[in-house]
Design goal:
Length: 207
């Protein structure tokens, strides 16, 4: 799985499908759509999303802010909040769950993509701030099948929260080439997602 995995939590099917369409046509892969809090919990327990697009106003047992608090308590996953309201009371409530982004409906494709990319990048930088920088020799020392120098360059950019497109631009290669390097390095790290790849790199650096 070379794309960034996104879980959508939105109880309006049309909006959820539109979001999925936007994301799947760019540098993301929608790994699930949850229409209520029970489905959201199920996807979180059974999958490994790299980020969550979360509607505040869910008509379910738990609303979006409750789910956000649940995510903060049980996972290390960035999320952006969607809402139809921009009033002070709603914003103050949202601040308490510390979202990585906040979008007011209606929104366009560019706003969604930019907010999500920024959230993922900022989250990665925050998580890695006090961690040692991945080093080629250190990582390969603990791997049975070693990553190549090019694969390591890609992994370092993933570690920094970059998307496939951003990695391709930084390394002056095509997105398809980036995907090939990601798939190969994931096999060597024995991971499936970016979140688990970053965690694996941290683990190897601490050995």
């Amino acid at each position: 799985m070379d794309e960034i995995q996104i879980l959508i939590v939105e109880d309006e099917p049309v909006i959820a499908e539109n979001i999925a369409y936007y994301l799947n046509n760019h540098d993301f892969k929608v790994c699930g759509i949850a229409y209520d809090s029970d489905e959201a919990k199920m996807f979180l327990e059974n999958g490994s999303p790299d980020a969550i697009v979360l509607d505040i106003n869910l008509q379910s047992e738990m609303d979006g802010l409750d789910i956000a608090a649940y995510v903060n308590a049980n996972y290390r996953i960035p999320f952006i909040l969607l809402t139809s309201y921009a009033d002070k009371e709603t914003i103050e409530k949202a601040k308490k769950v510390k979202p990585w982004g906040y979008i007011v409906k209606p929104f366009n494709e560019d706003t969604l993509l930019a907010s999500l990319e920024m959230a993922i990048s900022n989250f990665a930088q925050t998580q890695n701030r006090d961690q040692p920088e991945p080093r080629f020799e250190k990582i390969n020392k603990h791997l049975i099948s070693q990553v190549t120098e090019r694969e390591f360059e890609v992994l370092k950019l993933i570690y920094a929260g970059k998307t496939n497109q951003q990695i391709a631009e930084a390394l002056f290669v095509s997105v398809n080439t980036v995907k090939k390097h990601i798939n190969s390095s994931y096999l060597k790290l024995d991971v499936l997602t970016r979140t688990s790849a970053i965690a694996r790199l941290r683990e190897l650096m601490m050995k």
